[in-house]
Design goal:
Layout (H helix, E strand, L loop, with lengths): L2 H21 L14 E5 L4 H12 L4 E6 L2 H14 L5 E6 L5 H15 L4 E4 L9 H4 L9 H36 L4 E5 L12 H20 L4 E7 L21 H4 L3 H13 L4 E4 L3 H10 L1 H11 L8
Parallel strand pairs: 1-2, 1-4, 2-3, 4-5, 5-6, 6-7
Helix pairs in contact: 1-10, 2-3, 2-9, 4-6, 6-7, 10-11
Bound molecules: NADP nicotinamide-adenine-dinucleotide phosphate.
The site of NADP nicotinamide-adenine-dinucleotide phosphate has 31 residues, from α2 and α6.
């Protein structure tokens, strides 16, 4: 590494813990007590969204609204939250697709009429994609044919719908309602470490997640009254990968053995909202890995190839 680069790198490493400490400001007095908080969780029929719904019900939030496409799963989550909740919590389940304008407008109308608005919107919904880009074409070597290239376009369309268009429609639908109906509105986007640390086999997933991360980061500048938090977790336990829009399978270590625990991620999300933290890496040390990637990309690329068990094809 060139020596000025190394100096910047070492300085960044030394200063990282100080920045992390300073950014973790004490709870703002403007944060709503949970008993007054109306929380909308999009993508709550399983995984982190579902665990977040349980946590908010246990905290005694004023309202917990869960959204997902599978009606049977949403009914289960509502029943679970009703079992956990305190006497003053109202739980609402809505079946819908967050990339469908009609579904989101219907959800907004329901929340306006039942609660008069919302205070917190959590976007946890997302879909995975697991194949190296060229493998999606189905062509083993040489030029991809027309059908193969079209297959890639179709897969990217499905990934964009779940990871970019959905967050976009949710933001356009609910940002004005949050601003007009809440004394301290907040939005939390459950994004991914893949958005800032590129990995093989994740080109489609990472680029579609990165698009929504940048969308929300820019929105947070356009809407300073809303506290935005973006949580970037590494691999989490569960069956997120079963939703792969390219039909790919997992190459790395079993997420259920090595992944972050759902409860830990959900609690970290709630803390991020309470402390109004902007960008949260999980585990926290991954913030350092992001800095390393900026100054020494080949180091992270080697690590990523090993983690995803990926050997580049020899052309
Ligand atoms: N699991 C990981 O290793 C990992 C790591 C880093 C980041 N993340 C991110 O964490 C988030 C949650 O993942 P998870 O592990 O909890 O996976 P999960 O169990 O598959 O949860 C995803 C949720 O999103 C919902 N969803 C997907 N598309 C939707 C749509 N179009 N409209 C409405 N809801 C939709 C699904 O419900 P329906 O199918 O019922 O709609 C499901 O409830 C994702 O955004 C993912 O990118 C996951």
């Amino acid at each position: 590494m060139a020596s000025p680069l190394r100096t910047y790198f070492l300085a960044a490493l030394a200063l990282a813990p100080i920045f992390a400490y300073l950014r973790k400001q004490p709870k703002r007095s403007s944060t709503l007590p949970h008993k007054n908080e109306r929380v909308l969780i999009i993508g709550a029929s399983s995984g982190i969204g579902r665990t977040l719904a349980h946590e908010y019900a246990k905290l005694g939030a004023k309202g917990v609204c869960v959204i997902g496409r599978r009606a049977d799963k949403i009914a289960e989550v509502v029943a679970e939250c009703n079992a956990y909740k305190g006497p003053h919590t109202e739980v609402i389940g809505i079946t819908g697709d967050f990339a469908e304008v009609e579904d989101m407008v219907r959800a907004r109308e329901q929340l306006e009429s039942r609660w008069g608005g919302i205070d917190t919107m959590i976007v946890a919904a997302g879909v995975s994609a697991l194949l190296p880009l060229m493998e999606i074409t189905g062509v083993k070597s040489g030029n991809a044919d027309k059908e193969g290239i079209q297959r890639v376009v179709d897969v990217v369309g499905r990934a964009s719908r779940g990871n970019y268009v959905g967050p976009l429609v949710a933001a356009v639908t609910f940002v004005p309602l949050l601003e007009s109906s809440s004394p301290c509105p907040s939005i939390l986007l459950v994004n991914s470490l893949a958005s800032v640390l590129p990995a093989p086999t994740r080109s489609v997933y990472a680029s579609s997640k990165a698009a929504s991360l940048l969308l929300y980061q820019a929105l947070s500048i356009e809407h300073p009254r809303i506290a935005f938090s973006h949580v970037l977790p590494a691999t989490i336990e569960g069956d997120f990968r079963a939703s792969a829009v390219d039909g790919g399978t997992v190459r790395e270590a079993d997420p259920n053995k090595s992944g972050l625990k759902r409860e830990a991620v959900a609690r970290r999300c709630i803390a991020a909202l309470e402390y109004r933290e902007k960008n949260v890496y999980m585990p926290g040390l991954m913030g350092v890995a992001h800095v390393i990637y900026l100054v020494w990309p080949s180091f992270i690329e080697r690590y990523a190839r090993a983690k995803y068990n990926f050997t580049p094809a020899v052309m």
